[in-house]
Structures
1.
Amino acid sequence: STTLVSEMLEEVADRFSFQLQQRKIEIVIRVEKGVTGLLLDRDKIDQVLDNLVSNAIKYTGDEGAIRLEARKIEKDMLEISVQDNGIGIPKKDLTRIFDRFYRVDKARSRNMGGTGLGLSIAREIVKAHGGTISLESELGQGTRVVFTLPIQQEEEDEL
Ligand code: ATP
Ligand code: MG
């Protein structure tokens, strides 16, 4: 059945509300007008969102900010982005960041927990749904991950 995109994003934020509060990280959600109900594999897309938001929290300092955005782009695609103003990723690591088990400089990720699988799983899920995922990052400035999903409207959908 259809998923309300705004509801889906609010619920991700809710799942992390304890960590967000503890770290005093602010989360802002923006859903473009006109993005309403979509047919999505909700469990899988939640897995992608949880991975991206957990990364954003892990690699952002206290009192940082995370922005979750959804909008329509050309050819009936939905674009969802997760942006943080955290530690960023060095240029030399960007090409390998979606590889399985790849983690930037063990020293900084050692005490963070995790296996380095999150982004590779996210990419597999997004690809399996006919979308793409990419990441841009500036060391010391922050990171933005963007993924797309084809929009399939349910027929006779009243939304
Ligand atoms: P897991 O997701 O399995 O718990 P992980 O978070 O280390 O472990 P990925 O999500 O695949 O693994 O991320 C790979 C690496 O990319 C991370 O170890 C981290 O170094 C870097 N990274 C990912 N997201 C961010 C981000 N938002 N800001 C800075 N670095 C990031
Ligand atoms: Mg991760």
2.
Amino acid sequence: MTKLLIDCDPGVDDAMAILFALNRRDAEVIGISVARGNCSAAQGTENALRLLKLAGREGEIPVCMGAAEPLYGLREDRYPTPFHGENGLGNIKIPASSQKAADEEVEDFLYRLALENEGEVVLIELGRMTNIARTVQKYPSFVKKIRRVVCMGGTVFAPGNSSPVAEANFYGDPEAIDLVMQQDWPLTVVGLDVTTAIHLYYDDLLKLAERCREDCKEEVKFLCDINVCYQEGNRRQNRMFGYFPLHDPLALIVALEPSIVNTRRMPARVECEGKLTRGMIVTDRRDHPFEGKNVEFCLEVNERKVLDILFDAFM
Ligand code: BDR
Ligand code: CA
């Protein structure tokens, strides 16, 4: 059983990733924290609570609201509503939960869960690294309590999606991810090199809704509904017709089934200054590299297998 601590910004694809994790028999989600990203931290926290209710897990998994802005304050920053809608969930409304968000600062929440499950926690990042960076700043020993970090974000060779060279989660808070990258913990980056290599066809999601297990029919129907907006955003802005990339769910899949990707370890930093390059991953590929700590980057992926793994969780 893999213990997952999920930091996110739900988010259409975050929602898909969370429901996937909740439906995996080999995974236990021990907590969810939320930061600003696809929507405000308050809206994202509300979304996470509602998602748990939808999955029949109301009151079982603690949810904590975290950073309302990036590590060193807000820059010009618009929510990606063409993809995630006004509410982060493709403008789809689901019933409110009676569960309340944890009454804790996010650093205390994450550190406490890491201590209670010392050495066992796989930390999953599906949004900006703000909450994790803040926890490392407040509790430097947090790093040693975590088994592994798997984060969706960045790109090494593929083009960016927020700028020519930067992916949205890294672009939104480069200082936070750079700080996280400089810690001594095993960090795997699941970036656009692999997430854009997966094409999830909307029609396949509709087929899944017909064939999935009875007890997750409502969840899969919801995934179909929220992805109408996501698909439309990808059609208009990325010229993807009938399909979209698989970002956040792939981080969970890599955490649970590492053999579906080929990776390369390289020392790396994240550019925090450049006018054109803010949020860009800078890997040191010299013969004698020294810029940054070693990070494992996912560079190739088995698309067919990923889609099977995703769908199997709901079958
Ligand atoms: C990432 O940015 C967010 O909009 C998505 O939820 C995903 O985490 C993709 O670049
Ligand atoms: Ca996300």
